[in-house]
Write a structure and sequence with these properties.
This protein is an alpha/beta fold. The protein has 2 domains: 211 residues, Rossmann fold, CATH 3.40.50; 100 residues, Rossmann fold (3-Layer(aba) Sandwich), CATH 3.40.50. 42% of the residues lie in helices and 14% in strands. It is built from 14 helices and 10 strands. The strands form 2 sheets. The chain has a 6-stranded mixed beta sheet with strand order 1-2-10-7-8-9, with helices on both faces. Strands 5-4-3-6 form a 4-stranded parallel beta sheet, with helices on both faces. Strand 3, helix 3 and strand 4 form a beta-alpha-beta unit. Helix 1 runs antiparallel to helix 2. The longest helix is centred in the C-terminal third of the chain and has 19 residues. The chain starts with 15 loop residues before the first helix and ends with a helix.
Length: 360
């Protein structure tokens, strides 16, 4: 008995030996890396409210985005997107690109970062130090389109953190940031935080933390998630109104705030959002430098504004408890921008404005 031939499409064969080596290299790097510290912020004036910062700047590539980049690379490898000699391309204001350049170099694939004009020079230097190349776009609104065009032209893969961040991370556990944070809080006076505060960014961290809270019945009745975002960002405004937005947007607070809402932002897992003026973020960053005797990036300042707002609210209500946020990256990347008095003056962020914007 004869049979009609079956239709069949064969995709290019995966180099399984190379894939095994690449995944193994990334997993080995994770195995070598210790967990990030949870730092208690001294705040005697806030008696009964304990404030903690999880120091994500201590990752090998220097920021919170190290976790995301690791997840994105494993996601891309196991989906068959990342292959030998195929360029990996990303839209980033710096920190994600630095971390992705780190992993691209680790497994030996080319990496291209497409960044907006004004990205801190130290970040661009770090991308190049890990073997990546940089393409600059005049407007933040055109960065994603430029990535897609470059991927089509080179045969590369646009890794697209703004779409894939929430998909790539295992939010149930596997030592993600939420699981790590709650484990480190276990022996503190208030082990289940009243609030966790994170920046909007790609939406990946808020999705991971928000889902993890809801997944754990012991936590969900105690802990709420607050997302902070620069004033004027489309993410905050869409969260408030529910309407799809797109706008011109630029902020000196790199890494968070967007001209449109990334696909990875899941508003339904967020309990509250706070919009923070750029001047307040920078003022809080400078205040935190004095408290910790070290520099943190401006998005950490945005987090601190949200934390202090919630702490004041809890105090007024007579509540005690803990609040946890993140040190997103170190301040050494911003020495020629937000930490430089001349730069701040040239950008309309003078001492009087800073003083008016911040009272802890």
């Amino acid at each position: 008995m004869s049979h009609a031939p079956l239709d069949e499409i064969a995709h290019p064969e995966v180099d399984r030996a190379w894939l095994t080596r690449a995944v193994g290299a990334i997993e080995a790097d994770a195995n070598r890396s210790a967990d990030t510290h949870l730092v208690k912020l001294p705040m005697p004036e806030r008696a009964g409210i304990d404030i903690y910062l999880k120091d994500e700047s201590s990752h090998p590539s220097g920021s919170l985005k190290h976790r995301l980049a690791r997840s994105l690379f494993l996601y891309g490898l196991c989906n068959g997107w990342i292959r030998p000699d195929r360029p990996v391309i990303e839209a980033s204001s710096g920190s994600t690109a630095i971390s992705e350049a780190y992993f691209a170099q680790l497994i030996g694939v080319p990496f291209v970062a497409v960044v907006p004009v004004g990205t801190a020079q130290a970040k661009l230097d770090a991308i190049r130090a890990y073997g990546g190349t940089v393409q600059t776009e005049r407007c933040a609104n055109t960065v994603v389109a430029a990535c897609r065009k470059l991927a089509a032209y080179t045969g590369g893969i646009f890794l697209d953190q703004f779409t894939n961040a929430e998909r790539a991370t295992d939010w149930r556990g596997n030592n993600n940031i939420a699981e790590s944070l709650f484990a480190q809080m276990a022996r503190e006076p208030h082990p289940l935080p009243a609030w966790i505060v994170v920046g909007a960014g790609t939406g990946g961290t808020s999705a991971t933390v928000g889902r993890y809270i809801r997944y754990n019945p012991r936590i969900v009745t105690h802990t709420r998630l607050c997302v902070v975002d620069p004033l004027g960002s489309a993410i905050y405004d869409q969260y408030q109104s529910g309407a799809a937005l797109h706008r011109d947007f630029r902020s000196p607070v790199e890494g968070i705030g967007r001209p449109d809402v990334p696909g990875s932002f899941i508003p339904s897992v967020v309990d509250r959002m706070i919009a923070v003026p750029d001047t307040a973020s920078i003022a809080a960053m400078l205040w935190l430098e004095k408290k910790l005797r070290r520099r943190c990036g401006p998005s950490t300042g945005t987090n601190i504004v949200g934390v202090m707002h919630l702490a004041q609210e809890m105090s007024a209500q007579g509540r005690t408890g803990s609040i946890v946020t993140l040190i997103c990256d170190g301040g050494e990347r911003y020495g020629d921008t937000v930490y430089a008095p001349r730069w701040r003056t040239e950008n309309g962020i003078g001492s009087d404005a800073l003083a008016a914007a911040w009272t802890a």
